């Protein structure tokens, strides 16, 4: 079977994992492992001298984890994850870079204000953090929501962007309005989280204290091997999103897509070098959009990945980032 982004959306991610491996993905066994380690404990568990820090910038308190030595490299994660999504690549990157893995506004250990979830404002948060840390220019890589923010960072702060890498996800554009909500039986699975996260209050009421169910569903339908994201990792993500404030903030990232689409219309083509790392089913779509949005684009395919690239193929991601950022 030939699979591309259109086929993937029609099949649903669970079926794409089946197409890749020939075996169905099973739900991960849920066994409570006790209390979740703090960000400080998690940071110290990684090779590279990583430490957990916070800074108040642009009117919001941001949590970040930093370690390593060399040119600064900003890593930006997505929903429903935290900086911990980069744990498998951070030690290798830290050998030659000063790695800064940040929790976005509304994420993990960062503040969760009432607003400011459009990607331009979130990019301004990161720009202020970069300046706070004493850096004039950084390399930046983002995944999922983090890729949207990383693109906005480069578009709005080109002088501060040496190179940009986007993992699997482009900036929102008009095509988001064409996402299907309903498929005929047996023909696909809707990207329901785009619709659910547009709602006010109901997501908090439904998901508060239950985000582990959401996280397990997403991974069950997106990972060919469920062991790539273990029990402890899932507990860390669920703990970060279980509160009403965290769920509300997460919905804010999606509800801001209308403003994000309007903002994109005002951006010119990016002129700094841009790397796109696409999963096996998103590569062509990401390539098509990036070549229209930037003048200097390189592409790498993570052929065994569906969406969570830094956890599915950390060697491919780390190698591509090191080759690109130098």
UniProtKB/TrEMBL annotation:
It comes from Streptomyces plicatus. The keyword Transit peptide does not apply. It comes from the Bacteria. This is Alpha/beta fold hydrolase. Residues 1-26 form the signal peptide. One of its GO terms (molecular function) is hydrolase activity. The keyword Lipoprotein does not apply. Residues 72-176 form the AB hydrolase-1 domain. Keywords: Hydrolase, Signal.
């Amino acid at each position: 079977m030939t699979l591309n982004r259109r086929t993937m959306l029609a099949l649903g991610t669970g079926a794409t994992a089946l197409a890749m491996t020939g075996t169905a993905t099973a739900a991960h066994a849920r066994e409570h492992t006790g209390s979740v380690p703090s960000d400080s404990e998690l940071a110290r568990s990684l090779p590279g001298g990583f430490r957990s820090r916070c800074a108040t910038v642009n009117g919001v308190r941001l949590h970040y984890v930093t370690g390593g030595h060399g040119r600064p490299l900003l890593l930006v994660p997505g929903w429903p994850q935290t900086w911990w999504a980069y744990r498998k690549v951070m030690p290798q990157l830290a050998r030659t870079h000063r790695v800064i893995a940040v929790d976005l506004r509304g994420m993990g250990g960062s503040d969760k204000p009432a607003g400011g979830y459009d990607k331009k404002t979130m990019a301004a948060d990161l720009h202020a953090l970069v300046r706070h840390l004493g850096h004039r220019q950084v390399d930046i890589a983002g995944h999922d929501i983090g890729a949207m923010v990383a693109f906005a960072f480069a578009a709005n702060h080109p002088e501060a962007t040496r190179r940009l890498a986007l993992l699997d996800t482009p900036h929102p554009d008009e095509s988001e309005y064409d996402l299907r909500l309903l498929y005929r039986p047996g023909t696909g699975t809707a990207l329901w989280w785009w619709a659910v996260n547009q709602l006010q209050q109901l997501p908090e009421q439904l998901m508060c204290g239950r985000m582990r169910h959401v996280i397990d569903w997403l991974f069950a339908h997106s990972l060919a091997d469920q062991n790539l994201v273990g029990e402890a990792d899932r507990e860390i993500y669920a703990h970060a999103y279980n509160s009403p404030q965290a769920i509300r903030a997460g919905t804010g990232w999606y509800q801001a897509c209308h403003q994000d689409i309007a903002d994109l219309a005002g951006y010119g083509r990016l002129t700094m070098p841009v790397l796109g790392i696409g999963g096996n089913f998103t590569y062509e779509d990401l390539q098509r959009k990036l070549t229209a949005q930037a003048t200097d684009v390189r592409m790498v395919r993570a052929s065994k990945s569906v969406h969570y690239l830094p956890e599915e193929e950390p060697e491919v991601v780390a190698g591509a980032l090191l080759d690109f950022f130098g």
